[in-house]
Amino acid sequence: MKPNTDAMLARRRKLLGPAYRLFYRNPVHLVRGEGVWLYDADGRKYLDMYNNVAHVGHCHAQVVEAVCKQMKLLNTHTRYLHGNVLDYAERLTGKFPRELDTAMFCCTGSEANELALRIARTCTGGTGIIVTEYAYHGNTKAIYEISTEDIPADEVPDYVVTVPRPDTYRGRYRGSDAGEKYAAHAHEALETLANRGIKPAAFIIDTIASSCGVVAPPPGYLRKCAEIIRAAGGIFIADEVQPGFGRTGRNFWGYQADSFIPDIVTMGKPMGNGHPLSAIVTRRELVQQFSTHGHYFNTFGGNPVSCAAGLAVLDVIEKENLQQNALRVGEHLTDGLRSLAKRHECIGEVRGTGLFLAVELVSDREARTPATELAATIVNDLRERGVLTGSIGPDDNILKLRPPMVISTSDADYMLDILDRSLADNAHAH
Ligand code: PMP
């Protein structure tokens, strides 16, 4: 590592303490971004295959301008009248079916999920939450408790019950009825809650099941889980922090992969293209009931600058046809990855939808043995070759590809070529 990297690492350790983590064995010091490209302090460029926050591209001029313009004029909060929050709420709810007609704003995905759980608990009178194994929903206390990827098993409270990851590659159900079969585990979870004397409040899921490495649950799974929790008096929360805003290509929201309507949809990361902005969108009657228990205020949530960022992001998605781009480039990338799989035995499966793709690395195709070390080697090697990715899943053997939505087919080819070479140079060593 270079002297200035060493010095920065020492400063970080001293100033930020040991709880933070960096990506890559050789950390990247980024100073500038544009579109799908990131530049380090030495001017070296990297193809960003990982960031879903810079949704419409790093530092998109239209978003930057909208934020600067509003910042120069006024920034207050939702206790004053302002058109931006109304315009944005109108545009955002316009992206949902009629039933989901009310928006409430926060600053992070964790806060949005926290608010969703509060509403669920207030409106159902229950406390029990059903969540998938190895899920991530954020970092507040209530959300840490349901983030089964993070919380140690012996710390999980009684009112949180897990269901299996709906994994059709290495999980227990792999056929066309996998969605139904996995969803049936929600009945068992409800029984567990009942045995503990706990009334259910909600089933919550990241609709692309990304941190648990599933990346697109089997057909019918989400809809069936919603039916089961509702029949038990609970509500269904769709966490769209990762798949939302057109990333899945065919749809604007991940939950639309199944034909049903969630009770609460939570969203964040890509909403403000890097500006901290998050929200829930839900049915009026739930907010009506919730509001009888108190008012809602979030100092920064829904401020005029944040809403200007959100409006600009929606404008750019529409003007630049980014949902269609996600579909087109996503298919191109998937085809390219599948042809790499023909040459590289270590690729067990390529899956996902739009610009949310997973490449599962294995050391034995038949046995589907996770190639954890190889995945770490490839992620770090790609970084050295100028492509930024990451790995996910309980075995950390799945490459996650989730680039800004402005990626082109030639950028995708660039990445495929580098991945091809990285696999050729490294796979045999494992
Ligand atoms: N939900 C999901 C599915 C997420 O992936 C994340 C963040 N990785 C969150 C919620 C929490 O978002 P934030 O970090 O903005 O609090």
Give structural attributes.
13 helices, alpha/beta, globular, 2 domains, Aspartate Aminotransferase, domain 1, binds 4'-deoxy-4'-aminopyridoxal-5'-phosphate, Aspartate Aminotransferase, domain 2, five-stranded antiparallel sheet, 430 residues, 16 strands
Detail the topology: elements first, then pairings.
Blueprint: H1 3-16, E1 30-34, E2 37-40, E3 45-48, H2 61-73, H3 83-93, E4 102-106, H4 109-124, E5 128-132, H5 141-144, E6 160-163, H6 178-183, H7 185-195, E7 200-206, H8 221-231, E8 235-239, E9 264-267, E10 278-282, H9 284-291, H10 304-319, H11 322-343, E11 347-353, E12 356-364, E13 369-370, H12 372-384, E14 387-388, E15 390-392, E16 398-401, H13 409-426
Parallel strand pairs: 3-14, 5-6, 5-7, 7-8, 8-9
Antiparallel strand pairs: 1-2, 2-3, 4-10, 9-10, 11-12, 12-13, 12-16, 15-16
Helix pairs in contact: 2-10, 3-10, 4-9, 11-13, 12-13
Bound molecules: 4'-deoxy-4'-aminopyridoxal-5'-phosphate.
The site of 4'-deoxy-4'-aminopyridoxal-5'-phosphate (PMP) has 14 residues, from helix 4.
Structure characterization notes:
This protein is 38% helix and 17% strand. With 430 residues, the protein is α/β, with parallel strands linked by helices. The protein folds into two domains: 3-56 and 321-429, Aspartate Aminotransferase, domain 1; 61-319, Type I PLP-dependent aspartate aminotransferase-like (Major domain) (Aspartate Aminotransferase, domain 2), CATH 3.40.640.10. A seven-stranded mixed sheet has the order 4-10-9-8-7-5-6, with helices on both faces. Strands 11, 12, 13, 15 and 16 form a five-stranded antiparallel sheet that branches. Helix 4 (109-124) packs across helix 9 (284-291). The radius of gyration is 22 Å and the shape is globular. The model has no long low-confidence stretch (mean pLDDT 97). It binds 4'-deoxy-4'-aminopyridoxal-5'-phosphate. Residues 108-110, 113, 136-139, 206, 239, 241-242, 268-269 line the site of 4'-deoxy-4'-aminopyridoxal-5'-phosphate (PMP).
